[in-house]
Amino acid sequence: MSTLTSTILSASLLIPGTTKQTNSPNNQLLFHKNDHYLNRIVTQKKRASFCVKALEHKVEEGVPSATIACPTVRPKFVLFGSSIVEYGFHEGWAATLAHLYGRQVDVVLRGYAGWNSRGGLRILDRIFPKHATQQPSLVIVYFGGNDATLPQEDGHGSHVPLKEYNENLRKILTHLRSLSKETRIIFLSTPPINEKQLFGDSPPKKLPKTNESHRIYSEEGLKVCKEMNITAIDLWSKVQERKDWKEVSFIDGIHLTNEGSKVVTREILKVLKEAKWKPSLYWKNMAIEFEELSDTPIGPGGKPVDPHTTRFPLGVEWD
């Protein structure tokens, strides 16, 4: 077996969009400009299998790639926020994203129920270190619902004054933007609440939070994003577009049901589909991991089926 040695950029410099070419007697190897995967190699003639071991800085020729354990670096989507994020994997929008991107992206949950923007700012450097070897391709960030809790007489609670919320959000978004030129950001504004479902027929004289306070914090978040040119989704308005939103959107008046989560999923996918980001982060446009190694299964009708063109069973709903 012959071994070709070549200077190869470290893994952290190869994702995404960088190219590196190595010549062999039979084929030219390259990292495709739009391919996120470190080890998905395109050959001009596909007559030989190669495996790039980036950490060892060498290319081995003549060894079937299926027999070599090569590390794969996937793009990473980080979901960062409070309970709307943390609970998103329970039949929610986060679970749907993880399902749709199952062969393309690692969807990472960093949700902290009960937290406000102060808490998010406090751990920002630990969750998103600036010198990490891999930065997220996308961060979906949400804080606001706990900030919007009305101030309590004893000073307890999660309330954050509107001015401070504005400042905290700016700091969070500025930090995320500094991670990488290719890190994209989507901000989710504060969704509405159903006060009757939350407080029942005998609400306290002074409500700890109101749908109006959520509107105010939603608008403040959208204002910050507009000024910073950050993509934002107006959840307060989008959830209420449905006439029966109060009946179907919430588990407890605050946290989203499956139906409520569908609004979040739909709006996120709409942004990803319509964005002019390069490379595209829309699930149907991204490369499938190890697609070139997949056999073609036979469907119930006896005809070949391409498993990469759908995300059964949830994919059909999001076409």
UniProtKB/TrEMBL annotation:
GO BP field: lipid catabolic process
Keywords: Hydrolase, Lipid degradation, Lipid metabolism
Species for this entry: Lupinus luteus (European yellow lupine)
Name this polypeptide is given: SGNH hydrolase-type esterase domain-containing protein
Listed GO MF terms: hydrolase activity
Annotated family: Belongs to the 'GDSL' lipolytic enzyme family.
UniProt xrefs under SUPFAM superfamilies: SGNH hydrolase
Keyword presence, Hydrolase: yes
Domain of life of the source: Eukaryota
One Pfam family named in its UniProt record: Lipase_GDSL_2
Domain SGNH hydrolase-type esterase: 79-262
High-level lineage: Eukaryota, Viridiplantae, Streptophyta, Embryophyta, Tracheophyta
InterPro entries, sorted: Iah1-like, SGNH_hydro, SGNH_hydro_sf
